Amino acid sequence: MPVLMLILLIAVFVYFLWRHKTSDLTRNCRWRQNRALGRWRCAFCGAETDGPEIPTVCMNPRRGPGRA
Predict the structure, then answer these.
(1) What does residue 57 show for φ and ψ, rounded to 5 degrees?
(2) CB burial string 7-25: b at 16+ within 10 A, e below
(3) What is the mean pLDDT of residues 1-21?
(4) Please, what is the Cα angle at 45 between 63 and 26, to 5 degrees?
(5) d(Cα 35, Cα 29) in Å, to the nearest integer?
(6) Residue 66 CB neighbours (<10 A)
(7) Beta partners for 14?
(8) In whole angstroms, how far apart are CA 17 and each of 4, 27, 28, 35?
(9) Could you tell me which residues are beta bridge partners of residue 42?
(10) Phi and psi of 67, rounded to 5°?
(11) CA 25 to CA 48: how far, in whole Å?
């Protein structure tokens, strides 16, 4: 049982590292898609971007694109 818990703990840690490397979003980023216009809009800061996939970079104009 302790070995299983250790493996689970390591797996969760690796997952969090992977998520951190694949996204530059902040905790406040909440992207909503307007399908009629094909745009994504952040509900927190109002930033907008085009594209079929959800953005993975914070587009907040105050932070600058891609800044963590």
Answers:
(1) -125, 135
(2) eeeeeeeeeeeeeeeeebb
(3) 90
(4) 60
(5) 19
(6) 9
(7) none
(8) 20, 16, 19, 32
(9) 31
(10) -85, 130
(11) 14
